[in-house]
Amino acid sequence: MCGRYRLSRRKQLVEEYFDAVSGEKDWSPRYNIAPTQPVPVIRQNPKEPVRELSLVQAAELPRVPDRETTPAPS
Asked: Is 39 within a domain?
């Protein structure tokens, strides 16, 4: 993962700032988030004028080479 990702605000402050609703559990600020840890995202509901806060797992996916352009090992 390039660089660092941090979560320096509590859930209540994030919800208030973005006027978002959430059913997720509370979290504590973390200053070095690993790719396997859940992180909050704010999503706009397309059917209702409401923002939703959800926890997702951030992960860096490796690039899978295209079979047609990858040379065969010799």
From this structure: yes
